Amino acid sequence: MPQSPAGTLTSQQKTSSRRPAGTLYRGREGMWSWVLHRITGVAIFFFLLVHILDTALVRVSPEAYNAVIAQYQTPLMGLGEVALVGAIVFHAFNGLRIILIDFWNAKYQKVMFYVVLGLWVVTMLAFVPRHLINVFSH
Length: 138
Known about the structure:
By secondary structure, the chain is mainly α. The protein has one domain (28-136): Up-down Bundle (3 helical TM bundles of succinate and fumarate reductases). Helix content is 78%, strand content 0%. The radius of gyration is 24 Å and the shape is elongated. The relative contact order is 0.11. Its main location: membrane.
């Protein structure tokens, strides 16, 4: 690296050496919040689409509807319900965080992201054991 006459790096060289290699964005809390919000939103959308379609089966064929509902009462689907509730809870808490950032102050957005994660963990710790007991006891 070229050096200035005094043997120290210039300010332009210092800044360029701190840049990450490649083009991958190395974001922090804001990026992860955005990514998780999009993923959970898409997952909830597809759940609602499937839910509407399977409920519509009752008008087409009650026997087909009963067969689909029987598949939903398996332990595997019980675990899927845990994932669904996790996605809904995170999406809801993070949506409230986004509203607060829009109308209040973005200064505390990183702290609020960790508050969202904490609330999500507490909510899931309250829900998961109770739900899994119901799923595996039948």
